[in-house]
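Project outcomes to date are best conveyed with an example. Our students and postdoctoral researchers have been running inverse folding experiments weekly, and each run begins with a structure described purely in tokens. The record below, which covers 558 residues, was selected by the lab manager from last quarter's runs and is presented without edits.
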């Protein structure tokens, strides 16, 4: 039992303590509350896994609640994308909720706060209100409108709601304490006027609640037991509780806000504003560009739900922020795909290999294992012929003893096929190698059981039959930024650190069995890396995205 307790993260410890004190298991209820103002990113994935993971652990409902209180930035496209991402990760929400579902209740509560002297309409510009807030060491100053009569406040607030006042003319503020040590308690703004059409409520409302007012009260309406937020909301907890106290009765079940640290990912950014800039400036093609840290981008690149969940589990939940090296995320997808991805052969930078003693016009089909990590994956047949393609880097005319690939006078094995020996090269007018001529040992076919097939050679090459090969567009994706923390230096624009090598597009030659590959299918191109079929791919125009290289190629760079 003690070992089990040690394994709990501090969030789970909070829940376990509450269950011991005054919570019942049926009281537990969680929520994931995204703003529909952009696509979800890898940081959100950790929060999704936390909240829905707790729901699974405690058999408790988890709501998906959209914090849709800012019609300027919110769109239905983002709502739809968020729902797709949560479902793709394998989670199911109990209820689909929106802060806009509660606009009338929030308004009614705000009216009660005005009547009870806890809220007032302020008619000063936002810059003046901000200046009056004071500093952490100096108290703020009361607004000249702080003591407006209840009747005047109610009248102005209703006019704000109906759009009878101009945008920015008035705000509704909570009446708390302008000398409070926590500056968030210095009469925070609850509502602002926005004459904008909302994606769900249309033009029904001309005022919109701010986060601090809408969030806790939405939790209360939904009977959320634990509201988990990132660490920057720790100072907001006092205000969260103050608002709850004003709208509830002493015996009401009230949610509890607790905070955990963000986990920032190296070589990327997760600011929605900056991610939107990347899209708008054309630096990436879309929110789901495979270089983006969005869940949609990771999916298109070939990441799996299992790999993202494993990443979230590995980094865990902490109380202190830090930067997680993106190589850990890459490790998680390598580990997952190593178990599941079929092995296939593809040549990225081809040179022709001619087997001079192979019978002219003959071909054969050789058996190739699909995945040595999965005995149930079976095998496939690949064509072999006199002319093949191999990688240019797999041949050197002259090589030292440490070069274990093909060279003149030495033997290597062709994967799943025969042992060959380099004999000579044919060069073009520019002195570049156009063809490599070799001979093969017809008795050395892999798996034939002959003495010759058992002969040990130091190198094994992948290849494709030239006359059977199919062409495909291959997109070689890499990290979008060249430095660990691209937006850490406030003196420099983060765009200066864009990696010019983040995308290279080449034509590769693949074994013919890949012609009918479907979008999002995943493969290991042997000796090269893991790839998946892009969503825009078709049998007439095959497109593969590199998910990750076989090994971490950035270790030495960093």
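After processing, the design step wrote out the following sequence:
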């Amino acid at each position: 039992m003690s070992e089990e307790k040690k394994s709990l993260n501090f969030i789970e410890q909070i829940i376990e303590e509450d269950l011991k004190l005054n919570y019942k298991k049926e009281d537990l209820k969680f929520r994931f509350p995204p703003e529909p103002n952009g696509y979800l990113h890898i940081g959100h994935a950790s929060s999704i896994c936390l909240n829905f993971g707790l729901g699974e652990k405690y058999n408790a409902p988890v709501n998906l609640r959209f914090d849709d209180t800012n019609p300027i930035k919110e769109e239905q496209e983002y709502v739809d994308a968020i729902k797709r991402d949560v479902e793709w990760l394998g989670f199911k929400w109990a209820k689909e909720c929106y802060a806009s579902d509660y606009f009338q209740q929030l308004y009614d509560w705000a009216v009660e706060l005005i009547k009870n002297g806890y809220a007032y309409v302020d008619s000063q510009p936002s810059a003046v209100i901000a200046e009056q807030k004071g500093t952490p060491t100096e108290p703020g100053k009361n607004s000249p409108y702080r003591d407006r009569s209840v009747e005047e406040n109610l009248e102005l607030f209703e006019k704000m709601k109906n759009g009878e006042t101009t945008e920015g003319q008035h705000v509704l503020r909570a009446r708390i304490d302008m000398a409070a040590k926590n500056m968030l308690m210095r009469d925070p703004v609850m509502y602002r006027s926005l004459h904008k059409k909302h994606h769900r409520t249309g033009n029904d409302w001309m005022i919109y609640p701010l986060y601090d007012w809408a969030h806790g009260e939405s939790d209360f309406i939904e009977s959320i037991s634990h509201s988990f937020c990132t660490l920057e909301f720790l100072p907001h907890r006092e205000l969260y509780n103050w608002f709850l106290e004003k709208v509830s009765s002493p015996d009401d079940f009230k949610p509890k806000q607790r905070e955990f640290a963000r986990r920032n990912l190296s070589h990327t950014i997760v600011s929605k504003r900056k991610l939107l800039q990347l899209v708008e400036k054309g630096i990436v093609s879309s929110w789901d560009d495979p270089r983006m840290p969005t869940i949609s981008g990771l999916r298109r690149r070939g990441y799996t739900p299992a790999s993202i969940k494993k990443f979230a589990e590995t980094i865990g939940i902490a109380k202190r922020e830090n930067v997680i090296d993106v190589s850990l995320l890459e490790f998680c997808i390598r580990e997952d795909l190593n178990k599941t991805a079929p092995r296939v052969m593809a040549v990225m930078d081809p040179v022709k290999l001619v087997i001079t003693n192979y019978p002219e016009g003959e071909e054969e089909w050789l058996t190739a294992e699909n995945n040595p990590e999965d005995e149930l994956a079976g095998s496939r047949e690949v064509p072999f012929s006199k002319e093949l393609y191999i990688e240019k880097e797999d041949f050197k005319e002259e090589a030292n003893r440490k070069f274990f690939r093909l060279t003149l006078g030495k033997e290597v094995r062709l994967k799943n096929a025969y042992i060959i020996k380099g004999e000579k090269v044919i060069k073009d007018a520019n002195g570049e190698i156009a063809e490599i001529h070799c001979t093969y040992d017809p008795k050395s076919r892999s798996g034939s059981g002959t003495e010759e097939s058992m002969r040990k050679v130091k190198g094994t090459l992948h290849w494709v039959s030239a006359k059977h090969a199919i062409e495909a567009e291959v997109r070689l994706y890499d990290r979008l930024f060249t430095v660990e923390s691209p937006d850490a230096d406030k003196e420099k624009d983060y765009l200066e650190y864009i990696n010019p090598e983040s995308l290279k597009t080449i034509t590769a030659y693949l074994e013919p069995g890949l012609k009918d590959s479907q979008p999002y299918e995943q493969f290991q191109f042997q000796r090269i890396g893991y790839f998946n079929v892009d969503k825009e791919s078709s049998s007439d125009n095959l497109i593969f995205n590199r998910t990750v290289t076989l090994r971490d190629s950035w270790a030495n760079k960093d």
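Residues 1-5 have pLDDT under 50 and may be disordered. The radius of gyration is 31 Å. The training component of this project remains on track.
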